[in-house]
Predict the structure of DUF3311 domain-containing protein.
Amino acid sequence: MTSSTTQKSNGMWIIAALVVLLLILHQDNWFWTDDTLVFGFMPIGLFWHACISIGASLTWALATVIAWPLHDEAAENGDASSTEEAAS
């Protein structure tokens, strides 16, 4: 196994763990009866779900970077200029 393959495999396990963590944290039974307001207007359950949504979007962005890095495409094509064009 090459170094990049090992790193990609480790990254996949990290993403899988983050997805499982988000699935567990999404089940927020502890905030159902809590009347606490965050910032004086937002129910804590809604705030919790907003944070979970932000965490999910960050996890998805990280998964995209790990699963589909630009430098792998350039290496497959044998063209380093395609990475620069894709980045701009």
Summary: Helices lie at 3-26, 44-67, 70-77, 81-87.
